[in-house]
Specification:
By secondary structure, the protein is of the alpha/beta class. Helices cover 44% and strands 22% of the residues. It has a 5-stranded mixed sheet, with helices on both faces. The two termini are 30 Å apart.
Length: 311
């Protein structure tokens, strides 16, 4: 049994049994992956994948357990490398952050600027997706931390670190009737087509719940994963936008006006998700503290210790 075989195995599972995608991601050939997986199956004496001819169609029950253990073994191997790097190259390494567009575009830039100034030798990578996707990236070991508002709690292997609360605003073109109201209401918003986030993104459930509590059915005519896309279509007059407050910049969004809507919706909490099983290098602790100052090294270690005690 070789680590390379386990890596081929897990990459194939992560790409829904698509050998060509796994091969491309691992910079190898499809036959090479197929051969190594078959050799591993022969060594273990069980089929990890069920096949229809040469095509893999699903994971077998023993295969499910084998892949879980293989994933853990690969992560432990990576942890060994991280521990060694911590002492041989304290200021160098990699940091992969999985996050949403709103966080990457509006919340992270000043933090990343500070971090890269302090750690110029660390290679920083941003992976964007919806909350479920980015949480899965950390769960599988493809990213070091996830920054999102939702979905992290669905991954039991991730520890959630609350960072900050935020709420929403309504964006409209200048001279829009909503700007004349003394106090914005959901009933008033509901008179217009609504443009907001996709169902998987950025506290969308809080928006839905607020309208439902009032017995209202919002006329959502367009959804997007990108705050800037939402603002673009509001500028075109397709509807009113419901955004995260942080996504509106009066200096840049000169063709729009913002109306505070924090009294209409429950606040959402942005969280950082880290794997319970990963070795966290010093500069990752520092990045987290830069993003959320109350999450210093001691606070994170206490969270990890509490989990170990509970389990």
């Amino acid at each position: 049994m070789k680590l390379q075989q386990l890596r081929y195995l897990c990459e194939t599972a992560n790409h829904n049994m698509n050998l060509s995608k796994a091969a491309k991601n691992l910079h190898t050939s499809q036959p090479a992956i197929s051969k190594q997986i078959q050799l591993l199956e022969e060594e273990l004496g069980v089929d990890i994948f069920q096949r229809n001819g040469k095509r893999i169609v699903r994971i077998t029950p023993p295969g499910e357990q084998i892949i879980k253990i293989a994933t853990r073994m690969l992560r432990d191997a990576d942890n060994l490398k991280r521990i060694a790097q911590e002492f041989t190259d304290e200021a160098g390494g990699t940091l992969t952050i999985a996050t949403t567009h709103t966080q990457a575009r509006y919340a992270l830039p000043p933090v990343i600027k500070r971090f890269t100034a302090r750690y110029p030798k660390v290679k920083l990578t941003l992976r964007q997706g919806n909350p479920m996707q980015i949480s899965a990236l950390v769960s599988s070991g493809e990213a070091d931390i996830a920054i999102a508002t939702e979905a992290i709690e669905h991954f039991q292997e991730l520890i959630m670190l609350p960072c900050y609360e935020w709420n929403r605003c309504v964006v409209v073109p200048p001279k829009h009737p909503l700007l004349k109201l003394k106090k914005l209401t959901l009933e008033a918003i509901n008179q217009y087509p609504i443009i907001t986030y996709d169902f998987a993104f950025t506290g969308r459930s809080k928006i839905n719940q607020a309208f439902a509590n009032k017995g209202l059915e919002p006329n959502v005519v367009l959804t997007a994963i990108d705050s800037d896309v939402i603002k673009t279509y509001v500028e075109l007059g397709l509807g009113v936008g419901i955004l995260a407050n942080m996504a509106f910049d009066a200096g840049r969004d000169v063709n729009l006006k913002s109306i505070d809507a924090s009294h209409l919706f429950e606040p959402s909490t942005t969280r950082i998700g880290i794997s319970r099983n990963s070795y966290i290098r010093g500069y990752i602790f520092d990045f987290i503290e830069m993003f959320a100052p109350h999450l210093d090294h001691a606070a994170i270690q206490a969270k990890l210790k509490n989990y170990q005690t509970e389990n």
